[in-house]
Amino acid sequence: MKTVRHSPVFQFVRKQMRRWSNRWLITIGIVVAILIVTRIALPFILRTQINQRLQKIPDYRGQVEDVGVSLLRGAYSMNGIVIHKSSGHVSQPFLTVKHLDFSLKWGDLFHGKIVSEIDLKKPRLNFVQAEKAASSQLDVTDQRWQNVINDLFPIEITHLDITDGEVHYVAPDRTPPVDIFIKN
Question: Which pairs count as long-range contacts for 132-139, CB under 8 Å and 24+ apart, including other chains?
Fold first, then answer.
């Protein structure tokens, strides 16, 4: 008498289970491999996109040295941000930031809001007044800066934290040269 394990139906079911489990394992493996490759490539793709956007600011040029991504926090960070005025000769960059972190506020997601927070480490903003308008950088209330921020992080910002920040007003053409600043 044949046992259940040796019956053709049992053998068929067993073979089908192996096929399906192998297919699921292969599918899961492919998905995990795609996620790993995407996670590795994402910072390079973001850095390229951010640098291209910063190059499109009228009269200004910018660059980011490094971009990091934290998928679990819903965040990305930028290191070594420098924005220079490209028209005229300005001795100092308009903006430098050592580290900038954009992240989602997970607690507000439970209340149906998608909001974010920004942390800036060592930002320095330089307002330069020169004899020629092309060499000055005083026009920061311009709509183009809001467009850049919206392009880089299009979610409502509810919290901004600045650590070791500086704002400088520089007038190098005056006698004596002026450099007034606010720290922290």
Answer: 132/88, 133/88, 134/87, 134/88, 135/88, 135/89, 135/90, 136/88, 136/90, 137/85, 137/90, 137/94
Whole-angstrom distance, CA of residue 58 vs CA of residue 85: 9
* Strand blocks (E) in 48-175: 60-70, 75-85, 95-104, 115-128, 156-163, 166-171
- Global pTM? 0.72
Contact residues for 95 (Cβ-Cβ < 8 A; gap 6+): 62, 81, 82, 83, 123, 124, 125, 126
Question: Using alpha carbons only, how large is the chain's radius of gyration in Å?
Answer: 27
pLDDT tens string 124-166: 998 888 777 666 776 655 566 677 777 777 777 788 899 999 9
Return the bridge partners of 115, or none: 156
Q: Reply yes or no: is the peptide bond before residue 176 cis, omega within 30 of 0.
A: yes
Q: Tens digits of per-residue pLDDT, 95-120? A: 899 999 988 888 777 777 878 888 99
Q: Tell me 95's DSSP state.
A: E
Give the separation between CA 34 and CA 29, rounded to whole angstroms. Answer: 9
Token pair 């009228």: residue: 58
For 10, residues 6+ apart whose C-beta sits below 8 A from its C-beta are 4
